[in-house]
Every structure is written in structure tokens, then in C-alpha cells.
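quick q for whoever's on today - can somebody do inverse folding on this one?? i tried earlier but teh output was garbage lol. C-alpha cells:
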């Protein structure tokens, strides 16, 4: 929402009703973004309560999930409209505590889905390799794992170069902590005891988690506010709209991918 293209998109969608001024330091996120997220979350909670205990499509209440699309669309629109009537004070509390907590939980869910995807991908490559004896599947598994660690190394070096200058102790701490945690996770993944307990564990899963965790750190550093004149500039990309837009697109890609993967597995 702080990028130029995001601001223009919101303005076009709302027919000019919502005008964000994030570059000038006046970002009305509580006016639109949190209200829409609140209405969506509340609507899905209502649907979840209505379908609680339904484990078969022949159940009477299964129609709530599989049908009634017009009524559900109208219901969500009604909640979205009502959300704009709620005072800003509520959404200031919601954005600081509820939304932040929910975002953290969703990141953990993304990590779990990523590990599950890595397990399935590694198992599929190994199975195809054993069945066909073609080195292609082995190369895909090994090459993909190496690519993940290459991404980890490149982003870590870039983080130290751009965001870990003298006086940026907080950035240095998080970059170093992430690097050490990723190395530790990779070592644990190939430890003999872990291999005995879970034969499917390996560097493929650790590599994906390592690359994703490093991306999250890089995204957070690149999205941090611009430093004041009295503090060293710890984010040289604060004024680079293209960099922030790229991070937003990559983040949307991970979010959509996680949702699609979870829904297809559930189906």
C-alpha cells in the first residue's frame, strides 16, 4: 500500500474515494486495508462456525460451503460496508495487536506448507528417479536444493551490504540471527538422529525454509521506514518505489501459492 502503483490501484478501484498519501507520511491504512481485512476475516469466521462439524458434502449444512454463492457475496459486501462505519479507534487497536498477531500466525502456516511442499517434491523426485533411473530427477532435486542455498547466500550478502552499515545494530542483529538459524536448521536436517527418525528429512526442505526465511528478513529490512537525519541511513531502498513494489509482488506470490496449495491439498 505504500508503493506508487498500489496507491494508484486503490484510487482507481475506489473511483477516487480513497486517496492514500503514504509517500508524504499520511497513509490511511486504517481507512481501507484493515477494514477490508477485518470484514473478510469476520466473514470466514462466520462461515467456519456455520460449517463446524460438517465432514461430508451430504450434510445439511454443507450447502453453506458448496452453494448459496449469491447470499454469501451479498453478506460479505454488507460486512465490508458496515466495517467502514466502525470508528478508527477500533481499527488502530485491531491493526496493532490482532492483525499483527494474525500475520505472524499466517507466516508460520506458510512455513509449514512450504515444508510439506518440499517433502512432497523431494519424495516425488526420488520416486521418479528410482522408477525410471533417469538422472533428470536427481538433477532437479540437487539443483533445486543448491539454488535455494544460493538464494540464501546472495540475499544474506546483499543484506549485510545494504542494510548492515555502521550504526545499524538492529539490522545487523536480525541478519546475523537469521543466518545462524538457517545454518543450524540445515545441520539439524542432516543429523544422523534426525535421519533415523525421519528418512525423508534432508537439505531440500531446509533449503526452502532457509531461502524463505531470508526473504522475509530482506523484505522487512527493505520495507522499514526511512531513517531520520540524526540516525544512519539503514535502509537505502526506502525511497526506491520499484524495490518495494518487487517485494510486494513476491510476497503476494507466496501468499497466493500457500492458499492454492492448502486448498488443493484439502480438496
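ok took a stab at it. sequence:
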Amino acid at each position: 500500500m505504500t508503493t506508487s502503483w498500489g496507491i494508484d490501484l486503490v484510487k482507481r478501484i475506489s473511483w477516487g474515494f480513497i486517496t492514500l498519501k503514504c509517500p508524504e507520511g499520511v497513509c490511511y491504512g486504517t481507512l481501507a486495508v484493515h477494514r477490508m481485512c477485518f470484514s473478510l476475516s469476520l466473514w470466514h469466521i462466520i462461515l467456519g462456525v456455520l460449517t463446524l462439524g460438517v465432514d461430508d458434502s451430504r450434510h445439511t449444512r454443507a450447502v453453506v460451503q458448496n452453494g448459496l454463492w449469491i447470499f454469501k457475496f451479498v453478506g460479505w459486501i454488507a460486512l465490508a460496508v458496515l466495517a467502514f462505519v466502525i470508528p478508527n479507534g477500533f481499527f488502530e487497536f485491531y491493526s496493532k495487536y490482532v492483525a499483527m498477531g494474525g500475520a505472524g500466525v499466517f507466516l508460520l502456516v506458510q512455513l509449514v506448507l512450504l515444508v510439506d511442499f518440499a517433502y512432497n517434491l523431494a519424495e516425488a523426485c526420488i520416486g521418479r528417479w528410482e522408477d525410471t533411473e533417469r538422472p533428470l530427477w536427481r538433477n532437479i532435486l540437487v539443483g533445486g536444493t543448491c539454488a535455494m542455498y544460493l538464494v540464501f547466500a546472495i540475499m544474506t550478502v546483499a543484506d549485510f551490504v545494504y542494510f548492515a552499515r555502521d550504526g545499524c545494530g538492529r539490522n545487523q542483529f536480525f541478519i546475523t540471527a537469521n543466518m545462524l538459524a538457517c545454518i543450524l536448521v540445515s545441520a539439524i536436517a542432516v543429523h544422523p538422529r534426525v535421519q533415523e527418525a525421519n528418512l525423508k528429512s534432508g537439505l531440500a526442505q531446509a533449503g526452502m525454509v532457509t531461502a524463505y526465511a531470508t526473504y522475509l528478513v530482506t523484505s522487512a529490512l527493505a520495507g522499514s521506514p526511512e531513517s531520520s537525519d540524526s540516525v544512519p541511513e539503514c535502509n537505502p531502498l526506502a525511497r526506491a518505489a520499484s524495490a518495494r513494489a518487487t517485494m510486494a509482488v513476491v510476497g503476494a506470490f507466496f501468499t497466493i501459492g500457500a492458499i492454492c496449495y492448502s486448498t488443493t491439498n484439502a480438496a
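fwiw The chain has a mean pLDDT of 78. also Residues 88-132 form the longest helix (45 residues). so keep that in mind when u check it
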